[in-house]
Amino acid sequence: MAEAIVSAVLEQLTSIIKEQIQQEARLVAGVSKEVKKLTNNLQVIQAVLVDAEQRQVKEMAVRLWLDQLKHTSYDMEDVLDEWNTAILKLHIEGFEDTDVPKKVCFPFHSVCFSFKQVGLRRDIAVKIEEINENMTDIVKTTDTFNFNVIKSVEKPELVQSTSLIDESEICGRVEDRGALVSKLLSEGCVDNDLHIISIVGMGGIGKTTLAQVAYNDDEVMKNFNKRIWVCVSDPFDEYRIAKAIIEGLEGNASNLVEFNSLMLKIHESIKGKKFLLVLDDVWTEDYNKWEPFYHCLKHGFHGSKILITTRKETVACMMKSIDIINIKTMSEEESWVLFKRLAFFRRSPNECEPLEDIGRKITSKCKGLPLAAKTMGSFLHFKRTREEWQYILDSEIWKLEEFEKGLLPPFLLSYNDLPSPIRRCFSFCAIFPNDYIIEKDVLIKLWMAQGYLGFGKDKELEIIGHDYFNNLATRSFFQEFVKDLDENIIQCKMHDIVHDFAQFLNRNECFNVEIHGNEESLINYFDQEKVRHLMLTVSKEASLPISICSIKRLRSLVISCGDFSYSLPNDILSKLLFGELTCLRALCFDFPISPMSEIPKEIGKLIHLRYLKLKGCTGLEQLPETLCGLYNLQNLDLSHCINLRELPQEVGKLINLRQLLNERTDSLRYMPIGFERISCLRTLSEFTVSGGGNSKACNLDCLKDLNHLEGKLTVRGLSNLTNGSETKRIEGLTNKKKLFTLMLKFDKTTEWETISKNDEVVLEALQPPPNLETLSIWYFRGITVSPNWMMSLTKLRVLSLWNFKHCKHLPPLGKLPSLESLYLTIMLSLKRLGNEFWGIEAMSHLHQLFSSQN
User: What is the pLDDT of residues 314-332, one digit of tens each?
Assistant: First the structure.
């Protein structure tokens, strides 16, 4: 991973120098020399990093050298980011400085600087010099290791989503599957003891997969009234496990707090029910933790079963298992079937035949472990030549014995073959807990915030992120995909062994911690000088530990609270998070709902911040103006902040903002003047139109300059537009070629019952994008829907007209050539749809018509 960091520093350094030259704003004397020296040092180190990263697993000295390099590079990234932010500030605000009005001009160039700006640049120069000294020391020690110069993988192979292989079928295990299903369908114990079945085997051998197949067997599903799946993992969190069982039984999590109350709820919920409970990945050998569950779960209906997966037979015995299934490694033939299904996916027999003998030898090195065979098969799917396969077979990495037996070599071979930026993306995933449901879009935003996807506001970083994700998915680093209706992945998980491998790679950089009380010993979990990414999962009664403020170099902080409401006190936010953790690039309050009512002005100190997630903060009514000084901010998530009344007035200064997620900000009254300056914006959930009398608001035409907008957009408040100059022709939406879904809302007001000719004028004035595929219009108060532009939407597939109480006439929508679905809801005044509406000769393509008057 050090290779990726060094490459990123060099890219950032080159970008800043180029920016300096373009602005003709030189550094103070001596810094150019230091910058050149730093660049040379980084290039010398970069040449040997591939060899160093391959040797670090075996050689402790190399590992320590890389750690030193990584942390020095992180410090360098912070300094360069500070420098870049200073340049951005000059660009956005000019050279005005209200605090220090006096300026000084240097004779060697034409630009004037305030004393404060010169002081900042001198401060940056000193920091670069100090870090350069450390980097020089690191360079001096490279000779002692005799590193080889090896060319790294430069660019990732582009992976199409169709290459994701369906791995729902497992290979082999026929006897194990039959035996397990038979035990689950049996009548169970004669007495009142729980019938507990345990699947025991080493990591990566297929315990969870076998349990999943049995859990989803048709006969098994018919046999039980309730089926519950709980990932237990380590540590054994009684409170979380109890809530998960209740959620599985009742359909939603309980609001109960006391553990005894949770046990009583489970006891009540299973009465008279025949249930199957799967406890996946159990580690604890402490019977005191299991005993309350054992006594509580005994009261289910006769024939109920508990299925456990564990790596230790002592756990199975402690939990009083009646049946223990010891999973053995797969036979070579079973491993080969699994391997070749992935490695030879969509290859012709002529391509496969020359590789079969080497493939069988590689499969034998996987030692019968399904996860190893799957990882190698996915990895070699990208290798086309016999020479490449032979190189993998002959690799020294197969001799490694660390980590889970037999699993480290396949993981390392696949990992080392990745381009360095994707390696960095994968290892970052160690921040999540085991069995965590990873939101794909959130993960890409976190990668982007750290600079893993590159730099530059004109780059399509989101597309790069999707390519990186698909690359990792096709190599089996992710699994258990959840897809949307268009077959796009929206969620995934990591196998627990793959997660362990990510943590193995990170060594003291990524952590996830569960907080149950006021745990001020948090800093004892890790080396506070080295940790960079942290996820805290807080329980309902827990408070955020003050000790977190000592982790000064923290770059990512995700605070999650499960499924309940949670808030942070204002003094914690201002003094702790925003006052001390000033290196943060990503700050996510991952709460389903939070009454948090204020974001302190101290947030302006987080100058490195790229991703701020405030989703669900229902108490927020406004944001501080200091937020507009976060010039590096790329993603701002304000979704479901339902009481947010206004955005900061100078939000236009956020010129690097790419995504503003403000869905369900129903109280937002307007978009501030200057909003059009955010020309990088790719995603905007909602645009609120204000009335003409608001001097602080921009109008809908300000969207003209936001040419990168894509995906979906909702425009609210169209009723606020009045008949006049502002409704002659509204061109803000016209040229948005990547905008495919549009929702237009004429607000439901107290005057909604009244017919409005103005709504007809406004609708006519709108000029929607030409490539629209889905269009929804709400609360229209006109009598006739006949804008000239509607029949020009030749790519429109879905049209929804909702709550048109006064509408009597519709255009000939049947003539729209691509229309597949038409939704007409609450059209109380519409009496008839005649031939002129259907366009009889063209209506055969219309697949669905949904009409409702309710």
Answer: 999 999 998 999 988 888 8
292: preceding bond cis by omega (within 30 degrees)? no
At residue 486, what are phi and psi to the nearest 5 degrees?
Answer: -95, 15
Could you state, in order of their start, the residue ranges of all structural domains in the chain?
Answer: 2-145, 161-167+330-500, 174-326, 669-854
Q: Which two tokens stand for residue 847?
A: 């697949």
Could you tell me the pLDDT band of residue 849, with boundaries at 50, 70 and 90?
low
- Beta strands 821-825 and 848-852, pairing class: parallel
CA–CA separation, 201 and 310 (whole Å): 7
Distance in angstroms (rounded) separating the CA atoms of residues 256 and 564: 11
Strand order of the β-sheet with 489-493 is: 438-439, 489-493, 479-483
Taking Cα atoms as reference points, which of 397, 392, 365, 367 lies closest to residue 381?
392
d(CA 811, CA 257): 57
367, 329 contact by CB (below 8 A): yes
Q: Which CATH number fits domain 174-326: 3.40.50.150, 1.10.10.650, 3.40.225.10, 3.40.50.300?
A: 3.40.50.300
Q: Exposed (0-12), middle (13-18) or buried (19+): which is 529, by Cβ within 10 Å?
A: exposed
Beta-carbon count within 10 A of 66 CB = 22
Q: Contact at 8 Å (CB) between 600 and 49?
A: no
* Residues 777-820: tens digit of each pLDDT: 999 999 998 888 998 999 999 999 999 989 988 888 888 999 99
Q: Do the beta carbons of residue 671 and residue 702 sit within 8 Å? A: yes
Q: Which amino acid is at 775?
A: L
| d(C-alpha 526, C-alpha 508), whole Å | 6
What is the layout of strands, in order, in the sheet containing 305-310? 226-233, 275-282, 305-310, 195-200, 323-326
pLDDT at 125 over 70: yes
- Report how far apart, in Å, the C-alpha atoms of 494 and of each of 343, 371, 478, 489, 669 are: 20, 12, 5, 14, 42
What's 572's DSSP letter? I
CATH-assigned architecture of domain 669-854 = Alpha-Beta Horseshoe (3.80)
Tell me how crowded residue 687 is: count the other CB atoms within 10 A of its CB. Answer: 24
Helix (H, G, I), strand (E, B) or coil at 643: coil
Secondary structure of residue 563 in the 3-state scheme: coil
Percent of the chain surpassing pLDDT 70: 85
Same fold: 2-145 with 669-854? no
Rounded Cα distance, 582 and 555, in Å: 9
Report whether 465 contacts 448 (CB < 8 A).
yes
Could you tell me the pTM of the whole model?
A: 0.85
Least confident of 312-326, 520-534, 643-657, 787-801: 520-534
Give the position of tokens 């979990």.
525
3-state secondary structure of 187: coil
- The one-letter code for the residue type at 245 is I
pLDDT tens string 175-202 = 888 889 999 998 766 566 789 999 998 8
Give the right CATH number for 2-145 from 3.30.870, 1.20.120, 3.30.200, 1.10.287. 1.20.120
The pLDDT value given to residue 457? 67
Is residue 296 within 8 A of residue 329, CB to CB? The reply is no
Sign of the CA dihedral with 703 first, then 706, 708, and 711 last: negative
Mean pLDDT of the chain: 84
Residue 417 φ/ψ, nearest 5 degrees: -80, -10
